[in-house]
Fold:
Amino acid sequence: VQLQACGGGLVQAGGSLRLSCAASGSTFSRNVVGWYRQAPGKQRELVATINIYGSTNYADSVKGRFTISRDNAKTTVYLQMNTLKPDDTAVYYCNAQLGPYQYWGQGTEVTVSS
Structure:
């Protein structure tokens, strides 16, 4: 599985961005997919995941503001980010898991100005 993320950019606090991650490979519909982020000087952390049944999981810091979704026909996972805060500034990585295997995209940078 190869993952290509896009949609990052510079936005003011309170604004919105939508990240997309297109996946290659025929196993996408069987993957748990998600988004992680890594802020400068910090460890990579979970943002949100969505499993093959559409069940979602969010970090407490983004609940109510971010929404993860997937389109298996387009083999794409999305992250709608609303009410962005400066603390959301990070490089965002998409991730796909199938059994013991994990795959990572190249990251897309999100900067939220105050």
In short: The chain has a mean pLDDT of 95. The CA atoms of residues 37 and 92 lie 4 Å apart. The radius of gyration is 13 Å. DSSP finds no helices and eleven strands in the chain.
